[in-house]
Amino acid sequence: MNKCIRLLAAATALLAASVGWAQTSGTILGTVTDPGGAVIVGAKVTVVNERTGESRNVATDNTGGFSFPSLQPGGFTVRIESSGFQKYESKSNVLSSSERLTLGNIQLTIGAVSDTVSVVAEGTRVQTASSEGSALLTTAQIDSIAQKGRVLTNYLLLLPGVATNGGTSDAASGFVTVPNANGLSNQMMTISVDGLQGADLGSQNLFQGSQNPDSVEEIKVLLNNYQAEYGRNGGATVNLITKSGTRDFHGTAYWYKRHEMFNANSFFNNRSGLAKTKYRFNTRGATLGGPGTIPGLRNATKDKLFFFYSYDDNPSTTTPSSSAKTTLPTLAERNGDFSQSLNPGGALIALRDPQSGGTFPGNIIPTSRINKNGQVLLNVFTPPNQLNRAVSLGAYNNEFFNVVPNVRPGHVFKIDYKPTANDSLYFRGSLLRFQSLNSSVTNWDFARNSFSGQTRSAVLGYTRILNPSMVNEFTAGIRRPEEITTIDNNKGFRKTYGFTAGQFHPEINFSDLLPLVSFTGGGLQNTPDFGNWQAGRFPQQEQDLLLYIQDGFTYTRNKHTFKAGVYAEKDRIATGTGFQTLPYGSFSFNVDATNPNDARHPFANALLGNFQTYSESEKRTKPAAVALNVDWYIQDSWKVSKKLTLELGLRVANFQPWYGWHGFSTSFAPERYNPKDAPLLYQPALVNGARLARDPRNGNTRPAALIGSFVPGTGNVALGTVTSKDPNYPRGFYENAGELFQPRFGFAYDMFGNGKTAIRGGISQQNQSARYEPSAAGAPLNYTPVYYFGDLNTFLGASGDLAPGTITGHDRYRRTPTVYNISLGVQQDIGGGTVFDAKYVSTLGRNLPTTRAINTIPYGARFLDINPQNQDPGAAAGTVLPNNFLVPFPGYAGITLREAGGSSNYHALQASLNRRFSRGVQFGVSYAWSKVMDYGGSIPIYRTARVWNYGKSGFDQTHVLTINYSYDVPKASKLVDNVLIRGAFDNWQISGITSFSSGTPTGIGLNLTDNADLTGGGDGNRVNVIGDPRISHSERGFDRMFNTAAFARPARGVVGNAPIEMVRNPGVSNFDLTLFKNFPIRAEKETVQLRWELYNLFNHTQFSAMNTAATFNPSGVQTNTAFGQATAARAGRIMQVSLRFRF
Fold it and tell me: Dihedral sign, CA of 199, 200, 204, 210?
């Protein structure tokens, strides 16, 4: 944290001369008139922060208007004084971040100033001074409406336009998946804490370092058509505001417990006769806030210095719903005895002796033939624990429950300081740590990975009131996420087991880890492996950095509130040294009939020391990148008349692409590919009845496994690639689009001038940065040769071969993703502090990120009756050449080109009914009737994109209705007042969430039992639709979720007519309920609260997925008996108990 603070201080010092802009503040405004409606000029208006006592004064202008910009969120008292009129005082005006809270037309009463007209603001207000689509989740909602796992982003599911298929029940790893909003990818949502962006830099759909609910004052959501000062991404903007201290000391202490003993068993566990799995969470924490003192500095009025601190920890232990089943080498097999090695059918797997070509007597490998290092690899596995074939049916011999313990302690602190009446500062720091002990493989008990990390962040804000009409704000922030993966036990290291086979480049395996090892074939099922080691980056030490500043200046003049500012963000990401490389080496002992050393059993191959392939990277590069965003904006909130407000603005953004400053990034550039320079490939050939690989230059032959590999010394094996240090190519692999102009227009019309009815709408344009997590460099900076058919004793003397691999490219001139927002609606105060909001919302995405597999072979290329030239000369008649000989870009197996060729269209009717907590009641109802269509992120090569990929989005939900509520049950002592009644029946609360939503769309897969090639290449194939797959709700059940007879096998050469989506997954019908019992202490200044939270109150089975794999035999009969059945269900009833203390 100290390092974060030093970096932040340095950034602040560099920009101290500039003015600032913050996304955490709001504005209170209104108009003062006399009883006849004439404006009052020069009236003194004072706002007072009810928690801190901070006050500001302005005089009404020549239109009678007043405005207080740059106020921190909270409750405010507004006082108005003018000679000849009674003093006006309005209390409990709640201002949220980014809000323009209008008090409307305030009419003063004639009389003495010593008399006061006092009112108390209650409930939700109609937004008559702003046009943005926004929502507020208050501290009252956060405190009273429980969310399983206390994940703050789940509160977003209460809002209209937010897809309910998102959400995270727990944040054990410190990462939370954010939901989709208004028909856009969740990569486009911006979630900030006090204005500091909180998304993972590599995966922007993950919120990193989530704060706990007790540390958050409010959650402000700008869904669409927000002002020009907000941007960065193209979707919704969410800001979590940290609590501040007040003039009085306040604090909490709490404990939450979840345990499987409270829970109902899951549907599928009950169906399979399985017990409940471990589900243990023990959350504890505390908060404290109040006035502070600085030695030598007086704070007698308690309105200068305030502090707030929060601690939260969430240790947990979970297991999967069922055991992992694996076939491990038996103790006898590790010593060469395969006499009892049977396939799942019960037949002996007869070994082959590679030396003699015959069999081993008794199916036992002699001790003299056992390779020491091969035996070491088999002894890495734990002994099998399930040897009863009557139970396993020969499909496995080991069961493993991966018990995963997690801890997640977090600290948040905030200091607010007001040295003068015109200056205020705040500093917020946070530290979130997490650790998860998980098996490095999921199907047997191997080395325990300790995946840990921390996210440190800090924000500094400074506000300067230059005069009543000019306010400067400045904020700067830093966030430094770190991820570290180590081994928690002594497993995984070569020296632990005595593995001495060596490496070509031991210097890049600086932890001396075991190689990756795989075993498949021989009739075995559920075979094991080990050694993935974080995809090559173990021991992982990833450190990212986000540094930002915001400048802004607000100027109020008559009917205009002008604001201008700049936003600058510097990002640095380091994915982890060695990511997507093989620095430890990788052995495959798979059964391969073309391997002359094959023993017909993968464990026997290892015991003999004979491998199918070995791969090892030559270097261990470090994928890392940096980027810079610089935006500026200007806007005007213009009160054209008492009824009409226009919001005009322009934001100009410049998104710099990620680039690897170290030069270790590579990309494919199609314009640099020249087929004349492609390397030659070993051709298939038939020599004396044997299939071999032939060098096309001289006819020399090699083993058939090398067919399609590069012939050494020919062509350029890195043809078409560029590096981030290429001086003639953009270092980020695509051109910077330069300044992107994003205009904003909105209006709010107070229809009757009484603040009760508003027509609001607008149109805006936003852009989205399209960045990708950097990956390790491939050719020409790093190569991973393959060594075929060797043995563990001599392979280091062999030469490896290179073969066509996969590569990713970028469209150099791709366009920047753009989002257009359109909305038009009405807000109506219906009384009782309740506001109804209904609107049409449209979100149009253009130039959205997509990928194309540009090395896909054409349709029909594998049909020899159409293309006889593609006959494989080294195989029997009717056998087509391998794909490497048919691709459009010879020398590559697959090429993924990242482009901006997608679009999306979202149209919705959104409605909400909201009442903020007042007089013991709070509720919110949100509804959306919507449709979102998109391309799903990929574009075909040969099929028409709109026909093949365009359809309802994977998160489309036609209907979503969500109701949240909180209610203070009336005290029974009002009827019968005695100690027993007060203790048992007073101070009860009830709250909950009820949700109903449609299921999400999904497609139908196509599988063929004969593995027939029906298309001969191309973008793929789909089923034929011969009927309506929909069935009525009453017909749906576990065994039949849709009409499985509506699909058929397509004929050869015919692409199925099914669209990308055909049916919908089951929907949601859920009830969550929380009961509270409060025990007041000392006249309710202190309270002990007991909670009982019930999620899925009625334990209603809610299926969440279904089997969509249509499988046809050659006769066209669908053979998958599980087709159309439910395959997963949402959690059954889960309960949590909580004890809280508040003072």
Answer: negative
Residue labelled with tokens 């960065």: 232
- Which among 56, 27, 58 is positioned nearest to 42, based on CA atoms? 58
DSSP 23-47: SS-EEEEEEEE-TTS-B-SS-EEEE
H or E element in which residue 607 lies: helix 602-608
pLDDT at res. 171: 66
Triad 621, 623, 626: Cα angle to 5° = 140
d(CA 443, CA 320): 11
Residue 284 gets the label, from left (phi > 0), alpha (psi -120 to 50) or beta, of beta
Q: With 60 as the cut, is the pLDDT of residue 11 above it? A: no
* Dihedral angle over CA of 669, 774, 531, 443, nearest 10: -100
Q: What is the spatial distance between Cα 725 and Cα 288, in angstroms, rounded to a whole number?
A: 52
* Helix (H) and strand (E) counts in the chain: 10, 62
Task: Single out the residue of 715, 721, 722, 717 nearest to residue 676, CA to CA.
Answer: 715
First to last CA, the chain: 29
Helix, strand or coil for residue 271? helix
Q: Which CATH superfamily is domain 2-120 in?
A: Immunoglobulins (2.60.40.10)
pLDDT of residue 176: 86
Which token pair is 1104?
Answer: 């969440």
pLDDT bucket at 13, cuts 50 / 70 / 90:
very low
CB atoms within 10 A of CB 1115: 9
User: Cα(198)–Cα(191) distance, rounded to whole angstroms?
Assistant: 6
pLDDT for 18 beyond 50: no
Give residue 1051's pLDDT: 97
**What gap in Å lies between CA 413 and CA 12, rounded to an integer?**
19
Domain boundaries, given as residue ranges, for the chain = 2-120, 133-242, 324-400, 988-1143
990 within 8 A of 1074, measured Cβ to Cβ: yes
Q: For residues 542 and 483, is the Cβ–Cβ distance under 8 A? A: yes
- Ranking 62-71, 486-495, 685-694, 813-822 by mean pLDDT, the lowest is 486-495
Question: For 413-422, what is the mean pLDDT?
Answer: 93
Q: Is the confidence at residue 941, as pLDDT, over 90? A: yes
pLDDT at position 364, please? 98
Reported pTM: 0.90
Written as six digits, the tokens of 931 are: 């449709």
Return the residue matching tokens 């970096």: 7
- Mapped onto helix, strand or coil, the DSSP state of residue 785 is coil
Report the alpha-carbon distance of residue 416 to residue 395 in Å, rounded: 64
The whole-angstrom separation of Cα 378 and Cα 1101 is 44
Confidence of residue 168 (pLDDT cuts 50, 70, 90): low
Task: Render pLDDT for 1070-1124 as a digit per residue (tens, 0 to 9).
Answer: 999 999 999 998 766 899 999 999 999 999 999 999 999 999 999 999 999 999 9
Please give the pLDDT value at position 440: 65
The CATH class for the domain spanning 133-242 reads mainly beta
Segment holding 965, helix H or strand E: strand 959-968
Q: Which residues face 252 on adjacent strands? A: 287, 1142
> 762-779 burial, b for 16+ CB within 10 Å, e for fewer?
bbbbbbbbbbeebbbbbb
Alpha helices (H) in 704-775, listed in sequence order = none
- Report the chain's mean pLDDT, rounded to a whole number: 91
Q: Pairing mode, if any, of strands 279-291 and 316-318?
A: antiparallel
Place of tokens 């791709």: 814
Q: What is the mean pLDDT of residues 1030-1051?
A: 95
Q: For residue 791, which of 607, 616, 618, 617 has the smallest C-alpha distance?
A: 607
Tokens of 59: 């005089």
DSSP string, 611-671: -SEEE--S-----EEEEEEEEEEEEEEEE-SSSEEEEEEEEEEEEPPPB-TTS--EEE-GG
Q: What is the pLDDT of residues 271-308, one digit of tens each?
A: 888 889 889 999 999 999 999 876 666 555 567 899 99
**The pair of three-digit structure tokens given for residue 544, joined into one six-digit string:** 């990212």
